[in-house]
Amino acid sequence: MDKIRKNDDVIVLAGKDKGKRGKVERRVSADYVVVEGVNVAKKATRPNPMTGVTGGIVDKTMPIHVSNVALYNAATGKADRAGFKVVDGEKVRVYKSTGEVVKV
After folding, report:
1. What is the pTM for the complete model shown?
2. What's the domain count of the chain?
3. Could you give the count of Cα atoms lying within 13 Å of 8 in the half-sphere of its Cβ?
């Protein structure tokens, strides 16, 4: 069970986009996630008339390491760590600071 999952609202803790908030679009691997609007790079693409792709420079969202992001706690308005707890026989994620269950 992962502490940071798809569709979680996160805050960037380190790097050029420190302080930005965004939603996790996907998990690339166990250690990397793609967050919308964060870690955007310019990428040159070649035109491909077979698929209808026009060439030029496009923005591409690159993966960021999970250690550089933290869950956003709406109750406190700050970044928060996630932990696990068993509630009613089910393992759930909780915020470390308040102990309340993380809502997806």
Report:
1. 0.83
2. 1
3. 26
